[in-house]
Structures are given as structure tokens and as C-alpha cells.
Amino acid sequence: MIQIPISLQDLYRTLPSMDSLLALSGLSELQTEFGKTATKTALDQLLAEARTLIATDRRLPPWCDNLDALPGYLHDRLAQQHRLSLTPVWNLTGTLLHTNLGRAQQSEAAIDAVTSVMRYPTPLEFELHAGVRGHRDNTISNLMQQLTQAEQCCVVNNNAAAVLLMLSSVAAGKEVIVSRGELVEIGGAFRIPDIMRQAGCTLVEVGSTNRTHLRDYQEAITENTAAIMKVHTSNYHICGFTASVEEAQLAQLCREKGVLLISDLGSGSLTDLRRFGLNNEPTPQQMLADGVDLVSFSGDKLLGGPQSGLVVGKSQLIKKLQSHPLKRALRCDKMILAALEATLRHYLYPETLDKHLPIMAKLARTETELRSLGSTLQQRIQPHFEPHFSVGLVNSRTQVGSGAQPDTTLPSISLSFSAKGKLSLTQLEKHFKACERPVVGRLTNDQLLLDLRGADCALAIQAQLQRLGDAL
Ligand SMILES: *Cc1c(COP(=O)(O)O)cnc(C)c1O
Prior knowledge:
Pathway: Aminoacyl-tRNA biosynthesis; selenocysteinyl-tRNA(Sec) biosynthesis; selenocysteinyl-tRNA(Sec) from L-seryl-tRNA(Sec) (bacterial route): step 1/1. This protein has about 475 residues and is an alpha/beta fold. Helices cover about 45% and strands about 20% of the residues. The longest helix has 22 residues, at about 35-55.
């Protein structure tokens, strides 16, 4: 056979023109669905990619051989580009408050509150009845007064910001004493020593990693000491031969010496978690009752609200935080404040918390309930995954996540997928993530697990998994 050399120029000439592509049947439907501009941009991209392919590989892309299929191909590309990246997923990882998956799901009341302030003007900094200027943190501050007996509250973007603002406002240029057992790294670049430096404080470490005593703090206090800071070791646990000093004891020492006692509580649950079989977390209200001057905690961990950081404590100190220039940089917007207000209002009716706050509802699920959900799902899904995967039911453990309660887990039930044929679990995991509402599970050595404690809309999960199974 004679090989006819094709010149580059011939290849470029073979490439369809923009006008001929726009004239293809099916293109006008695309323009109606995605708009003329986006459709033309996609075609431009396609032609540019083709020119690159000609230059590098001296060949045309496959779509040139089958122009009838081009509108369909383009539709998939445009649909892909139009998909929001912050799309809903199912978090069946076995970690309820997953930082990478957006932590706490909001209550329906919080969702309504956010959408309405997004849609309409709202008196964010306006006292409607008095007709005077108000403060954006007032509502939250009043609620926190009721819920924690705090004199006032200051709200910022997250707890990291709360700690930074707290230290910058009450301890800049001075010494802050922290136990060596509490020099926490939360993740990312948030380490207590770094945040101290950033706030302009001098960190004074006392005690040892496993044991710190009252006298250690006592001996470290100088005329330059602004505060003693307690950091809740939320994401790890030191056990064995240990000692730390309770807040109540430290509060007494601080009062005698005229220094402040401040606390980074981390998760800061407002309710007793023992009803779920978890350990009790120290609450902000307990800290304040023990004599802590300022307590900071997250809004989107066990509190179950939007990403935010709250500082509660004495009026005269909160006023310092409110008037610090950093507060303006760290303040929350109306959407966060609306969601936070709606979340906190649930705490005024504690009997209904487990029903309204998704994180509480998930913690409250019983093993019996989960097992019955699991066996229904397993029976209905299993046949759809034959002959590639077997679908079983296994006992598993759910963790709270986001650094809360690192050593306690709750019993749960997981759907378990095991490979029986040529398809691997890694491939299955990819399929899960490519679903219309992606499913995020947990891959172990020889099983892909979907922890059902994190499941909502069980019927929708069932339908989606059945569709996926049929398409394998
Ligand atoms: C989670 C946590 C933080 C950081 O809180 P964010 O709300 O994520 O900024 C700070 N300190 C402690 C002890 C924490 O557990």
C-alpha cells in the first residue's frame, strides 16, 4: 500500500469552519439551552484543541470523523462546565462533621432564614423600632446571653478568627501563659504558637506535655502577663500519667493576680452529649460559671450552625473585641448571622433539638433504626450490582469529626461493597463520585463502605444506587 503523506496544511484545511459547525443540526438546541455565547466559546475551544492536536500529533480529533455526534458530545461538555462545584453530595464516610465536606448541615429554619435575607433587605445594623443604628451582633449576643448567661457575645468568621481577635484585643504586647500539653495544631497553619505571634503576644509555655500543675502557672505570672489561656485539646487526647488544672482553680488564681483567664473551647457544644453515648464536652456556659473571662468556640462543629466563631464573656472585654480594627475584617455577613440566629433559636426549645438540627438527628439515630434501614437498602440494591459486586451489611463506627471527641465513636451500620468480577472497588468509588449527587464513602482494604448514620433521603440514595448498578 502506498502511504500518501498528508501535509499539515491539508489537515488544517480539513478542519470544519466555525460557520459549518454552527449550521449542524442540533446546534440550535444547544444554543437555546446554554446560550449563544457559551456554545460558541465551547466550539472555539474544540477547534483550538484540534489545531493543537494537528500541530503536535499530525492528526485530527475523532469528532471530525463523525460530525453528527458532535452536538451530543458538546452537550456533555457544556453540561459538565455548567455544573456547580459546590453541589450536594452524600457524606457516608463515617465522619459526620467532615471539614472537607462542609461540616454541619443546617436546619430547615436556618436555610429559610438565609434564603430570605439573601432575597430581601434586612435590618442587619438597624434597630427597626427605635429607628436608630444597631449592631450586627446584637441578636446573637442576646441569644447567647439567654443560652450561656454570658454578658455579651462577639461573632466572627470562624473559631480561628475568634482566637486571633481575642488575643489581639486583650493581650497584644503582653505574655500569655499556656500549658505545654495544650499547644494544639488544629490543621492547616493554625497552631497556638503561630496564632500568638500573629496576635503580637509572647507565649509562655508552662508544665510538660503530660503534666501541668497550678504552681506552674503561678510561678510563670509576671507583671507582663495579660492572661492564662486554656486550649481544649479537642482533636487528641493525652492519657496515662497526666495532670492538668481545672478552669475553676485557674480562675481563682487569675483573680488573685489580676490577670485574665481565656479559653479556646474548639467545638463548644451547648448541650449535654451523653444522651448520644458520647463523652460530655465542656460547654461555654460551664466555663463562664467556672470563672473564665472569655470563651471562644466554633459555630459549625457540634453547635450545628454555619461556619462562624463566637466569643462569649464579660461586657467590658467583649467591647474591646468589638472595637478592635481586626473585628471589621473578621465580621460575619447577613447570611451567616441569619443562619446562626435560626440555629441558636432551636436551643431555646431543647426538647426539639434532635429533630431540627441535622447533626443531632444523626447522632440520635439508634442502632436498631440504622440496621432496619440498612437491611432494606441492602435487599433493594444488591440485585442491581450483580454480578460485579456483592452488597452486604456490616457493623461500623461513626466518628463526630472536626476534632470533636477524637476517642469516642458511635455504633453504626454500613453497606459494604466487595468486588466479585473484573471491576475493582477503586473503579466503583469513581462511579460513586460521578453520580448526579456524588456518594462519598470509605475505602478499606477489600470493601467500600457507606456508613448509613450520615445518610439522609434514603429513598433517593436507593434509587441512585440502583441506577448506577444497572449501568455498570
Ligand atoms: C476547630 C478548632 C479551632 C478552629 O476552629 P474553626 O472554626 O475551624 O476555625 C480552634 N481551636 C480548637 C481547639 C478547635 O477544636
